[in-house]
Automatic annotation (TrEMBL):
InterPro entries per the UniProt record, alphabetical: Dihydropteroate_synth-like_sf, IspG_bac, IspG_bac-typ, IspG_C, IspG_TIM, NO2/SO3_Rdtase_4Fe4S_sf
Domain of life where this protein originates: Bacteria
Free-text remark on how the cofactor is bound: Binds 1 [4Fe-4S] cluster.
UniProt family annotation: Belongs to the IspG family.
GO biological process: isopentenyl diphosphate biosynthetic process, methylerythritol 4-phosphate pathway; terpenoid biosynthetic process
Source species: Thermomonas carbonis
Enzyme class: oxidoreductase
UniProt-annotated binding residues for [4Fe-4S] cluster: 306, 309, 352, 359
PANTHER family, per the entry: 4-HYDROXY-3-METHYLBUT-2-EN-1-YL DIPHOSPHATE SYNTHASE (PTHR30454), 4-HYDROXY-3-METHYLBUT-2-EN-1-YL DIPHOSPHATE SYNTHASE (FERREDOXIN), CHLOROPLASTIC (PTHR30454:SF0)
Pathway(s) of this molecule: Isoprenoid biosynthesis; isopentenyl diphosphate biosynthesis via DXP pathway; isopentenyl diphosphate from 1-deoxy-D-xylulose 5-phosphate: step 5/6
Purpose of the protein: Converts 2C-methyl-D-erythritol 2,4-cyclodiphosphate (ME-2,4cPP) into 1-hydroxy-2-methyl-2-(E)-butenyl 4-diphosphate.
Stated name of the protein: 4-hydroxy-3-methylbut-2-en-1-yl diphosphate synthase (flavodoxin)
Pfam families for the chain: GcpE, GcpE_C
Amino acid sequence: MTHSSPHQFGPAPRRSTRQVSIGGIQVGGSAPVVVQSMTNTDTADVASTTKQVAELWRAGSELVRITVNNAESAAAVPRIVDKLAMMGIAVPLIGDFHYNGHTLLANEPACAEALAKYRINPGNVGFGKKRDTQFAQLIEFAIQYSKPVRIGANWGSLDQSLAAMLMDENALRAEPWDAGRVMREALIRSALDSAHRAVEIGLPADRIVLSAKVSGVQELVAVYRDLATRSDFALHLGLTEAGIGSKGIVASSAALAVLMQEGIGDTIRISLTPEPGASRTQEVIVAQELLQTMGLRAFTPMVTACPGCGRTTSEFFQELAGVVQNHVRAKMPEWKISHPGAENMTLAVMGCIVNGPGESRHANIGISLPGTGETPAAPVFVDGEKTVTLRGDNIAHEFVALIDEYVDRRYRAGRPD
């Protein structure tokens, strides 16, 4: 297997060659890595689910998965799609099916039609003799309604009969694998065998996305490296049950960054456990920031800010950095339409003279605030040149105004070249 060279600048070329269309969003091949998320509402509650899907879409989620686990939720799906359309939101919805998906799609054809993609877990599609039949029924619905499918194997719901078979095969090896490798193989085989079975039934290979999720960083990297060498299907990346707060963010970023740097992965989700009362949109923001800091995509202007030290006794630079980041993120939905390219802008908010002027010159717009014992003046740099010095109590408002003026001057749609 070939990995990117440690001396190579930027991620390796993408490995998947198949491109899948999901409600008009292209995944795989030469398409950009796509951000997706999942609701945690009761799908049968049309109002709350529509509201959360809209929030995730506004935050930048390009695909949204919803749970379809009973007749009520299946019946609600077309109503959710209609309400979103009335709001001008055309985000593709993915139906997450376990155990009874074949029945729900049979009984609710409007749901089968309204969804942009079906997600099937081969470990939870059925048990015993029913497993193969019910899997085939799901694939046949996908064929009937011309829908793509994500075949998503998961460490927590592994096909136990497949795992047992591979354990038996391993016992016969001259040099048996360790148990962890056998379980990883079972996860990969579950996804690949199911994908090949779907193709045999008649689902085109360019309508299949694969995933094989685990909750450990090193295990996820090992699984997807192997999966990427054994297929050319589009791959969905995600660390399942990543956790809450910084743990979930760090673990997901550590695993996904390694894989995407090697050219593995076509769509990602950051599976964070939200803090009580926190917005579900955090997982979207983390996914965007991961892609943007890796140089794979641009979503919103990024703010460089120093961490602070003994030279920065004032908290004002921290407050200003937060104001600036929140301002540009809030403006991006408007700028995306009226000022295309503004998402590539770089900003700097620095707290003292040590690195402040240098970092500010590197940004499109930067400000170097006075540190301890420094002259109470804040020089502003625009495209490397000092343009103005701000003083007084209104620096935050004036700096934000300068950012808006710069965006309008440089990125306004239809401006003269």
